[in-house]
Design brief:
heterodimer, A: elongated, B: mainly alpha, Fumarate Reductase Iron-sulfur Protein, Chain B, domain 2, Rossmann fold, 4-stranded parallel β-sheet
């Protein structure tokens, strides 16, 4: 005879199951990203709650929480893009290959299966699970765009820095060049008018 | 890290877990975008650096001199005898971990070797092995290790991932100063000819031509004339400063970055406008033309060697005292090293402001006053006519530069000046300012372009606090008083907090400064249109509205 909880789960859809286990899923998902750091660092990133004493851990946790909420809600592309940016901006300049940087996203599928696998099977929600997987796949694709934006930004910044170092020099060179150009133009006008004057006089 | 740093053979066996080996058994992975390129041989030769040779940081073999081990061990021995602080810091750490999570590089990289305690341990372990009985007998069990070329690579890699900012020392119960350890660590690797180009180049320039950028006298003069043209366009006032003028009351020295780089030039325009308005009896020097000192990032002796020209020039010109521009490490050097190097100079007087009569007692030994102190004093005495509404398009926050704030305690003067020249000022959170300020991540000579990723990691905690006030208050201007900050914070905020510009204190002062005989200003110093004008007001305002 099934116990009451199982009967209850039989009538729940995947979103409801995910919402019920949201905190556990979030915690495990957060652990998945922390596990890519050395042990001491992972402990620190997890433990320190001050936003300014631990900018990385807090950015990860807060953004992952909001991403999870958004996935279970409307999964708005623009919102997700901004939230991903807060995490990937950090990962993109740390010691990770691109695949390592973004590995936390497919990890969400594993976490959901670990946490809800049996219930999903019992409630026969494999169709809904496929739909959720599809959302996570799209999130991964979106993360490629965000990652590339971050990398391109780094190179743009490098180029800008070099440009700023010399921009005043170029501006000055241009100004001197313009002065010379104006001067020679003036000389040309004067010599033309002299010629005209001479012609006038000779007439 | 954009490149594929590891190549898994089997796609199904990718392990994203970080390797968990003991730090001593984890050699440094010297990665591109994280290190500075080596100095060119000719630059090292100009200032007699030892063991000049060709090498590449990413190579396994650094072509170290044959007797490299002897050089390093003798170098440690010499410094243990010479610097009591170094000896004490090698012995007294109890590994309490209070410093561990306070370093901006640790917060940004997550690399345990960037915990100050472990960064120090990289060198301490060698000290124990060769200079302590316990280390000699018990070896690894006593935290000691052999000096190998891998250890040298590791020291070099991590000691240029420390900006000598001293934030960790604020939290250390013993007051251990990691900056001192980093300084010695860099000196030791320099003995082997492992000098980065971004530091060695400016040092050679400064030694040969008087400033880091290698600007020659006529270039310095023409750069300033170029700024004067801009000032005349904006204010209608023609300024005629003097150069190398004997008999001037004050010698003005500023980092050469102010004469050339963006946005430093706007700060330099600010100095010129302020001094003109005051009718200050001062002169620029085209010989002692560098307030900064990259020699400080190579060795104590080199720092002294590069700065000796400033006092020589002050003596030659016969000035009474020296006014220093907006610089960071210049301040630590003048007030914490100068007395040890030379003692108080007897050919100058304790600085007295000719405008307000204020005697700068704290500078009576070094005879050098920071311009933030000078300007705050002017405002306090109501000697400047200011129209802060000209900065109304700016929502400003203040970055305490490590050297002037944590190093020297200059907290209030720039804030006082800022609140009088801007109507919209917002502080960043308490644990990110004043003595707990987060470094820009590019100080101590690591503000090159090739290591941009390192700089972005190191500056992350600073940028995070800027982002906070940007999101909450709409802050769009990050003001500061350090040339390295002005150059390096802009790329930092461009990555982390787009929409914020970096400005020097005196750029904002000059925007607000109502000058005698000026035409109605329509733009700020950057040529940006001024906001809607409101009533002018005098200096001496105590608090800004939005603080």
């Amino acid at each position: 005879m099934p116990i009451r909880g199982e009967i209850l789960h039989k009538n729940m859809n995947l979103i409801e199951l995910l919402l019920e286990k949201k905190q556990t899923i979030l915690k495990k998902w957060f652990d998945a990203i922390l596990n890519t750091y050395p042990d001491d660092t992972a402990k620190f990133l997890k433990k320190q709650k001050d936003l300014f004493a631990n900018p990385v851990g807090n950015a990860f946790y807060n953004s992952m929480q909001a991403i999870l909420d958004e996935l279970l809600n409307k999964a708005n592309r623009d919102k997700l893009s901004l939230l991903l940016n807060d995490i990937i901006k950090i990962r993109a300049i740390q010691d990770f290959a691109p695949s390592q940087s973004l590995a936390f996203i497919p990890a969400l599928k594993r976490v959901v299966r670990e946490e809800l696998g049996e219930k999903i099977r019992a409630a026969e929600l494999s169709g809904e699970l496929s739909a959720f997987d599809h959302k996570v796949d799209n999130l991964l694709l979106l993360s490629f765009d965000v990652y590339m934006n971050c990398r391109e930004k780094i190179y743009e910044i490098k180029a800008n820095e070099l440009r700023n170092m010399t921009s005043k020099l170029i501006e000055r060179a241009n100004r001197i060049f313009d002065k010379h150009a104006q001067k020679s133009e003036l000389e040309e006008i004067l010599s033309e008018s002299n010629k005209l004057n001479k012609k006038e006089v000779s007439r | 890290m954009g490149k594929f740093i590891k190549k898994p053979n089997d796609l199904m066996q990718i392990d994203y877990k970080s390797p968990q080996t003991d730090w001593m058994d984890t050699p440094a992975d010297i990665r591109e975008h994280m290190y500075l390129h080596p100095t060119k041989a000719k630059e090292l030769g100009a200032v007699d650096f030892p063991n000049i040779h060709e090498w590449k940081p990413a190579d396994k073999n650094w072509n170290l001199p044959e007797n490299w081990k002897e050089i390093v061990l003798n170098g440690i021995k010499e410094r243990l005898q010479k610097y009591r602080s170094f000896h004490v810091f090698m012995d007294i750490c109890v590994r309490c971990g209070a410093c561990a999570d306070k370093c901006h590089f640790y917060l940004g990289t997550g690399d345990p070797k960037n915990m100050p305690v472990l960064r120090a341990e990289l060198l301490r372990s060698v000290y124990r092995k060769y200079f302590t009985t316990g280390g000699k007998i018990f070896g690894k069990a006593a935290g000691a290790r052999e000096l190998t070329d891998d250890v040298i690579r590791e020291l070099w890699f991590y000691y240029y991932q420390c900006t000598e900012c001293r934030r960790c020392s604020v939290f250390c119960p013993y007051g251990i100063d990691q900056a001192e350890i980093t300084i010695i660590g860099r000196e030791l690797t320099n003995l082997l000819g492992l000098q980065p180009g971004w530091i060695g180049g400016p040092v050679a320039n400064c030694f040969m031509k008087g400033n880091h950028l290698g600007l020659e006298p006529h270039t310095i003069k023409s750069n300033i004339e170029f700024m004067l043209d801009d000032i005349e366009t904006i204010t209608g006032i023609k300024i005629e400063p003097t150069f190398n003028r004997k008999g001037a009351e004050i010698l003005f020295i500023t980092p050469s970055g102010d004469l050339f780089g963006m946005p430093g030039v706007y700060t330099a325009m600010g100095y010129l406008m302020l001094f003109h308005e005051l009718g200050l009896d001062y002169t620029w020097s085209t010989y002692a033309s560098e307030g900064g000192n990259f020699g400080f990032f190579t060795s104590n002796e080199m720092a002294k060697r590069l700065y000796s020209k400033i006092y020589s020039e002050a003596k030659r010109l016969g000035v009474k005292w020296i006014l220093g521009g907006e610089c960071g490490h210049m301040w630590r050097l003048w007030h914490q090293y100068q007395n040890t190097w030379w003692g108080p100079p007897d050919f100058m007087e304790a600085p007295v402001s000719p405008i307000t009569g204020t005697r700068f007692e704290h500078a009576s030994s070094a005879k050098v006053v920071h311009i933030a102190e000078f300007t705050a004093d002017l405002i306090k005495h109501g000697r400047l006519k200011l129209d802060p509404s000209r900065n109304d398009h700016l929502k400003v926050t203040w970055h305490d530069s490590c050297n002037t704030s944590r190093g020297m305690g200059i907290f209030e003067e720039p804030r006082y000046a800022l609140k009088n020249v801007c109507n919209h000022f917002y502080e960043m959170p308490e644990n990110t300012i004043r003595e707990k300020t987060f470094c820009c991540g590019s100080g101590s000579g690591i503000n090159a372009s090739e290591n941009m990723e390192l700089r972005m990691r190191g500056g992350l905690p600073r940028a995070n606090a800027v982002k906070h006030v940007h999101d909450i208050h709409g802050v769009n201007t990050l003001a500061n008083m350090c040339a390295i900050d002005r150059a390096s914070l802009q790329p930092l905020v461009d990555y982390w907090v787009p929409g914020v510009q970096v400005a020097g204190l005196h750029e904002l002062v000059a925007n607000a400064l109502v000058m005698k005989g000026e035409k109605e200003r329509t733009t700020d110093l950057r040529g940006e249109p001024l906001p809607q004008k409101s009533a002018q007001k005098s200096g001496g305002k105590e608090d800004a509205k939005d603080v």
